[in-house]
Amino acid sequence: MGQFTRRELLAAASAVPFARKPNLLFILADQWRGQALPWTDRDLIAPNLARLAEGGVEFNRAYTCYPAGSPARAAMLTGRYPHTCRVMKNDAKLPEDEVTIAMPMKAAGYSTGYIGEWHLDGDAQPGFVPPGPRRHGFDFWAAFNRGHRYEDSVYFRDTGQPIQEKRFEPNYQTGLAIEFIERNQKTPFCLVVSYGPPHPAAQGSGRIHEHVPAGPIQAAAECARRS
Known about the structure:
CATH architecture: 3-Layer(aba) Sandwich
């Protein structure tokens, strides 16, 4: 199989007859190390990730072009380097004239959606991003600009009224994603789900705590030698 640029891939997807257009689902996590995945760490309990990987492809030589949230996110959504799309640091705004993946997908008949942390609209926290050019082509919106409040968070839809959530943040965001997918069974969709964890503060749901032994955590021998 030949190599394609991101723009060539999007152009090809837009040219596919409607019935054959694939759905696009991007699942992001903040500060998740590649070594902490079920196919690299046998002690990690993550059956859903393991099942997802079984039907996909592992990229074991993939690198970020910038090790910070906002620039890396901007690069992924636009297909351009951070200095080219003008997001060179965290809390920078993605300029309204930048084209994200949602725009050509929307033009090709896709339903577009974004759930979770955006972090491309300045330093406002949690931050309401109003409908329009600052959402860069994403129509369905259940998101906020910045978060890291995983047990007591808020998100916004199309008004500035915050929607309070007491549940573990990734749990309710996953529920919103399932609802979006179920509503778009008859149309192709492009959905981004952007989780905050495992970024600090280090919080988890009650089910996660069931798998963590009580008492101090002992570092692996390899880690102890390097400390």
